[in-house]
Amino acid sequence: MAHNKQAKKRIRTSNEARIRNKDKSSAMKTQMKKLQALIDANDKAAAAKELLVTFTHIDRCAKHNIIHSNTAARKKSMMSRRVNAIA
Known about the structure:
It contains three helices and no strands. It is mostly helical. The chain is elongated.
């Protein structure tokens, strides 16, 4: 347990940041699952629209250092390949 004022504040702020990061990461994962459901349903038009929303979520997480920028690029590439593969 922290004893001085600075350490107590650091614990408090890091917990707030952890919760904020978890919310953004969870929202990104949920959006990716929503897109994957459209891909599985072979709905190319709806999947193309959801792809842009998914890109926004991924970019937002990368911007705030929740995920690495290379990870974001890999996820975006993977999702766009899956959407383009729909017949």
